[in-house]
Write a structure and sequence with these properties.
303 residues, 11 helices, Helicase, Ruva Protein, domain 3, Rossmann fold, seven-stranded mixed β-sheet, 9 strands, alpha/beta
Length: 303
């Protein structure tokens, strides 16, 4: 069987069970099998695929037909333009969570711009970042958010916490792959408990699925991704409340809390933020679909 035929057959097999993006998933499985990229794949379409590789491809297809997420099968997922190793035991990074990184960068650089204006007025030498940023990524999972920020903010000191030892093992692999092990400090513990000092930014994608909705999740999520990274209690906000309750003691004056939420949780999450962080300005950021996606709470500079 030539590669083109194998690719077509794989796509047809996936499409027959209503797998979304069957053609893309077939390409990803074949690229993973052969250790090649998309350009190489389409340069080799007329090559013969050895029987052993055909057999392995069929095994990969069986795993996908059993609802195993494609990211676990191929062992990677792209996030904010970088590839991350993922495996059972960590939540698979989603595009929606990139908004957390964007809002953190907005804060860092807008705050730095104000600092640069002050230094220019006082005839001091301006810097890209006036202060040494300290950032905490809470519930880091595979480390995608923490590492993305480390790559974009090389002067930052980043703490990445997770209650799961397995998640921290996977995050360590990703830190090594992206060469940020010296700046991303992995800490085991629940939410903000492990932080050794107050930080400028607390960023989190906490569990926020309502308990009653867990059974309605897709088989890919329900059967394979860690429940501890999904279940948020009766209203989905248990961990959000816990995070906000801990934040005041772990956040420097003028600091920022960013927490991902479900589309229907904006009003309730904002209300809790105002109650638990009374000296903060609270707002919501919408995703590309126009849904509330990120809770933002910025402490006053002095309180």
């Amino acid at each position: 069987m030539i590669l083109k035929e194998a690719l077509h057959q794989a796509s047809k097999t996936l499409a027959s069970v209503s797998t979304e993006d069957a053609t893309l998933e077939a390409e990803l499985l074949v690229m993973h099998l052969l250790g090649i990229d998309r350009a190489q794949l389409y340069c080799r379409l007329e090559e013969e695929l050895p029987p052993g590789d055909v057999h392995t491809l069929n095994q990969l297809l069986e795993r996908r037909l059993g609802h195993e997420p494609i990211a676990y099968i191929i062992g990677r997922r792209e996030f904010f333009g970088n590839d991350f190793y993922v495996a059972p035991g960590v939540l698979i990074p989603r595009a929606e969570s990139e908004l957390l990184v964007e809002k953190a960068l907005d804060f860092v650089f807008s705050d730095s711009a104000r600092g640069s204006e002050k230094t220019l007025l006082s005839n001091e030498k301006p810097s890209v970042l006036e202060k040494f940023e300290k950032i905490a990524d809470i519930g880091t999972g595979c480390g995608a958010i923490a590492i993305s920020l480390a790559l974009l903010l090389p002067q930052a000191r980043i703490y990445a916490t997770d209650i799961s030892p397995r998640a921290l093992e996977i995050a360590t692999i990703n830190c090594d792959r992206h060469r940020v092990r010296d700046r991303v400090h992995l800490l085991e513990g629940d939410l903000l408990d492990p932080l050794p000092e107050p930080v400028d930014i607390i960023i989190a994608n906490p569990p926020y699925i309502k308990d009653a909705d867990l059974s309605q999740l897709s088989p890919e999520i329900r059967m394979f991704e860690p429940l501890s990274a999904l279940a948020g209690g009766e209203d989905g906000l248990d961990k959000v409340r816990q995070l906000l309750g801990q934040a005041r003691g772990k956040l420097r004056p003028g600091g920022l809390v960013l927490a991902e939420i479900a589309a229907d949780q904006g009003e309730a999450a904002a209300s809790w933020a105002r109650e638990l962080l009374p000296h903060a300005r609270v707002e919501l950021a919408k995703d590309l679909g126009g849904w509330d996606r990120v809770l933002i709470a910025k402490l006053l500079d002095m309180y």
